[in-house]
Structure to design on (513 residues):
């Protein structure tokens, strides 16, 4: 199946089974804003719990906070967001569609990479065991030409980004003959900067109202509270502060479902370290975070690091963890060594000391910060994309199954009386009443057992517990496992232990140690 088809199916599956709805749908929606339904909210909460526990529960030197969305507007002046939180935008004069100039060029570069990879793949098949990939890349004229074209554009692009040279960005688009995907023309406007922050007014009277921003990242809430937490929590460097919360960005091009939204959620860790030790910690967190992703079992080959072309104004090292989405490798998480930029800026703008007194060194300094920042929604998208499967079973029957990691699944067990009579529903209710204190259960007695299994497969329920006539005789039930569809009989008093052991968060967290 083509990747676009997989993606289209995924989006409609999310709607059909209550994972994700378009926001304000009855009013034809609001662009790039989405609501999570009854299944989506459970999955999202489990993702958040996995992250939170991996940070706060497993690290003695990491604590959490929950800061407000509105903050003093000077914070955004100090952080650089008022002046520099911009994206370069370009419009196509024919279609009137707006694009991010950097994304147009990145897509073009990815296409060149793709071309080369396909050429190499084809040759590898043709030559079999004798194939020498390095030699082929260095000598095949078509491949050599594409690689050198790519490198040349890439170099110009990096320089244009670093120099903030908007004219050159436009020139690259013109030179590469990049066309608008909608109109197909190359009739472009100039490239302009566009600030991504939403603003609103706080206060009742219009003359006394204060212009405030909806935070574009949760990080600043941590920085301005770092000394409160350090002092009240008696934290010693190195230590971290974790936070999960909403962030808002007026994205120029919002597409690809929940990948790029205007209202989204972030899970961020700011880790405070001694100046000079930040690169060591940056490397450490890169490794820890990659392990967190890979513990979900979606295949190491689907992740990669992508070091930044253009460093943000605050960073001295930065990388992204990318996941192979149905539309290519895309950023899910950013890891940045943010230096002492933010704390220094807040000291300057607020006039308050942001120094930490280090009892070991017996002196004060402004700590350096390593940040890990992951979008809950992008993580959600990667999880559902990795889990969505269409399978052909015996007798040509098909099933859609979400092979979600059990610890993340919205419903852990479905409780199903085989038939809706003979006292089986009553017995099933008894089982449900026992189990519901331990994990999320769903009771279902409607339709044939086969159809009920399919419904549970479609939402990724790892276990179905079926109550049949034998249950009434010997107090045993069958447990059906989602992926293998294998069933086994166990006594009712073992069901809770059996399912808990395989679906609780602990089982996932233990993979991180
Ligand atoms: P991009 O380059 O895709 O715009 P970014 O580099 O600006 O992302 P960061 O500022 O590093 O993103 O934010 C950290 C994380 O927050 C990202 O890795 C992503 O998971 C998430 N995120 C950022 N912007 C959005 C958005 N508009 N919608 C959903 N998630 C987002």
């Amino acid at each position: 199946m083509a990747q676009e088809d997989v993606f289209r199916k995924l989006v409609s599956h999310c709607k059909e089974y209550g994972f994700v709805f378009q926001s304000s749908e009855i009013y034809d929606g609001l662009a790039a804003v989405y609501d999570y339904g009854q299944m989506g909210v459970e999955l999202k909460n489990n993702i958040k719990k996995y992250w939170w526990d991996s940070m706060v529960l497993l690290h003695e030197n990491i604590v959490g906070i929950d800061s407000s969305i509105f903050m003093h507007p000077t914070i955004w002046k100090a952080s650089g967001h008022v002046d520099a939180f911009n994206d370069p935008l370009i419009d196509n004069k024919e279609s009137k569609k707006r694009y991010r100039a950097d994304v147009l060029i990145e897509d073009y570069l990815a296409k060149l990479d793709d071309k080369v990879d396909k050429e190499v793949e084809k040759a590898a098949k043709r030559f079999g065991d004798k194939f020498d990939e390095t030699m082929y890349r260095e000598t095949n004229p078509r491949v050599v030409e594409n690689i050198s074209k790519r490198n040349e554009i890439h170099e110009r692009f990096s320089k244009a980004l670093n120099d903030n040279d908007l004219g050159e960005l436009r020139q690259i688009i013109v030179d590469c003959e990049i066309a608008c995907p909608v109109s197909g023309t190359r009739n472009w406007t100039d490239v302009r900067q566009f600030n991504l922050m939403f603003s609103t007014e706080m206060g009742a009277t219009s003359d006394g109202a204060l212009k405030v921003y909806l935070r574009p990242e949760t990080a600043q809430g941590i920085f301005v509270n770092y000394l409160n937490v350090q002092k009240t929590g008696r934290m010693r460097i190195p230590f971290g502060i974790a936070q999960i919360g909403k962030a808002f960005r007026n994205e120029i091009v919002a597409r690809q479902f929940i990948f790029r939204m205007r209202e989204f959620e972030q899970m961020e860790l700011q880790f405070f370290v001694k100046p000079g030790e930040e690169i060591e910690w940056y490397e450490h967190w890169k490794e820890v975070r990659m392990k967190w992703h890979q513990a979900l079992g979606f295949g190491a080959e689907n992740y990669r690091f992508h070091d930044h072309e253009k460093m943000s104004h605050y960073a001295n090292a930065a990388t992204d963890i990318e996941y192979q989405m149905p539309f290519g490798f895309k950023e899910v998480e950013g890891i940045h060594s943010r230096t002492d930029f933010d704390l220094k800026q807040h000291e300057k703008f607020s006039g308050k000391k942001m120094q930490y007194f280090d009892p070991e060194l017996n002196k004060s300094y402004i700590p350096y910060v390593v940040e890990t920042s992951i979008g809950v929604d992008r993580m959600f998208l990667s999880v559902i994309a990795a889990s969505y499967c269409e399978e052909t079973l015996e007798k040509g029957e098909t099933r859609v199954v979400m092979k979600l990691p059990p610890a993340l699944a919205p419903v852990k067990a479905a409780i199903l009386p085989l038939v809706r009579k003979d006292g089986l529903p009553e017995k099933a209710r008894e089982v449900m009443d026992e189990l519901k204190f331990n994990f999320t259960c769903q009771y279902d007695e409607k339709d044939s057992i086969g159809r009920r299994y399919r419904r549970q497969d479609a939402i990724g329920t790892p276990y179905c517990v079926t109550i049949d006539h034998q249950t009434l005789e010997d107090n045993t039930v069958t447990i059906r496992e989602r992926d293998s569809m294998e069933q086994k009989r166990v006594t009712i008093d073992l069901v809770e232990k059996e399912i808990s052991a395989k679906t609780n968060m602990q089982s996932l967290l233990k993979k991180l140690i």
